[in-house]
Amino acid sequence: MRYKVTVVGAGNVGATTAQRIAEADLADVVMVDVADELATGKALDMMEAAPVLGFSARVQGGGDYATTAGSQVSVVTAGLARKPGMSRDDLRLKNTEIVQGVVAKLVEHSPDTILIIVTNPLDVMCEVARRASGFSRQRVMGMAGVLDAARMRWFIAAELGVSVQDVDAFVLGGHGDTMVPLPRYATVNGIPLPQLLAADRIEAINQRTRNGGAEIVNYYKTGSAYYAPAAASYEMVAAILKDKKKILPCAVRLEGEYGVDGLFVGVPVKLGRGGVEQVVELALTAEERAEFDKSVAAVRGLVAELS
Length: 307
What we know:
CATH topology of the largest domain: L-2-Hydroxyisocaproate Dehydrogenase, Chain A, domain 2
CATH class of the largest domain: Alpha Beta
Oligomer: single chain
Distance between the termini: 41 Å
Shape: globular
Number of helices: 10
Number of domains: 2
Number of strands: 14
Radius of gyration: 19 Å
């Protein structure tokens, strides 16, 4: 069986996500965008690379959601991107309207799909998608922790001069300035990070992780990160379609875990063919718990502002 994945949005994140999925022969991809000719052109461009790269997956682009019917997974990247000086929260009102409309169309044509939300502000847009779809928490999740943890892993590898393949890390909480890096759970080939780096260097990495998106925005000037977000989205899609049962940090709706109920927050989860198959609860120190609660409060405040 060949899987089908829809990617909503043919901008940098969406197109790069579609490219990674197709080039890995993970699934056929339908890329839809209000700019239908842009989506059509990028899809054609990808397919013209297929003879060189040797992948067999098909990429189709356009603006008709009927072509998305039967998608096992749908990745929503549509929305306004951040500009320098703009926070994720500034995007909330406009992107709420966009995500509501997109999800309604996806669900109409693929009622059994699993939704991965990438649009910012991430945690709030997950709640918007849940309300618009009516799906259980197993089938609505946000791509946040995978990206944030990947950034932290790279910063650790660069600081220590080691292979990124040896580095593991976790980030909890909201996708933004209040995220909670967990260096106590970070390891380098099994060695706890606090045994390898001084506390001040670890805190510098934590802070750079929190500001990871803004750092890229400031360099780009007229756009936001897309290579790493696309890679993170791809990893989540692969974990689901291949039923990997992989533990990844994702934004999911908590139902009592970590003392939080009815709110999308970044935590470790097991991803498989059923979507979110398990929420993993980590033991937190008092300091970590205080930071996590602060992050949860920030997300709760934003969700409360939804109409």
